[in-house]
Amino acid sequence: MATRRGAEQEKTHLDQDAIKEGKPSNISPAVPGSVIAKLLGFTFAMVTLPLGSYFASVNTIFGGNSTYAGALAALMANVVLIGYVIVAFQDDQSEREADEAEKKKSK
């Protein structure tokens, strides 16, 4: 049979509220709006840049050769992906620097 062990030692949600009263509540969103805007921008670029480069170059640059136009579209998709990774790393570094400055400030 299943029994509850240590049920008298467990804290209820009401008991835990008394412990957390001293700390201010953090109501900021989990993901900042600037991160969402960057994600949407790169998503738009990931869709439009490869397709646009394919259709713009298939007849004008490559003379109807869809293999080269497809290769250019794949290259453009990789350019967008690498750009997103670079921007994400820079954003993460600035966030870490801000956290470190806040820690030093609170000491």
TrEMBL record:
Provide this UniProt record's keywords sorted from A to Z. Cytoplasmic vesicle, Endoplasmic reticulum, Membrane, Transmembrane, Transmembrane helix
UniProt KW Transferase keyword: no
Entry annotated with the keyword Transmembrane helix: yes
Q: Which InterPro entries match?
A: Vma21 (IPR019013)
Source domain of life is: Eukaryota
Q: List compositional bias (Basic and acidic residues) regions by residue number.
A: 1-23
- What segment(s) does the record annotate as region Disordered? 1-28
**Where does the record say this protein resides?**
Endoplasmic reticulum membrane; Endoplasmic reticulum-Golgi intermediate compartment membrane; Cytoplasmic vesicle, COPII-coated vesicle membrane
Principal location class? endoplasmic reticulum
Find motif (Prevents secretion from ER) and give its ranges: 104-107
The UniProt entry lists membrane topology as: Multi-pass membrane protein
Q: Could you list the residue ranges that cross the membrane?
A: 35-56, 68-89
Give an example GO cellular component term for this record.
endoplasmic reticulum membrane
Query: What GO terms describe the biological role, i.e. biological process, of this protein?
Result: vacuolar proton-transporting V-type ATPase complex assembly
PANTHER family, alphabetized: VACUOLAR ATPASE ASSEMBLY INTEGRAL MEMBRANE PROTEIN VMA21
- UniProt similarity note: Belongs to the VMA21 family.
What does this protein do, in the record's words? Required for the assembly of the V0 complex of the vacuolar ATPase (V-ATPase) in the endoplasmic reticulum.
Name of the protein in question: Vacuolar ATPase assembly integral membrane protein VMA21
| Organism name | Hortaea werneckii EXF-2000
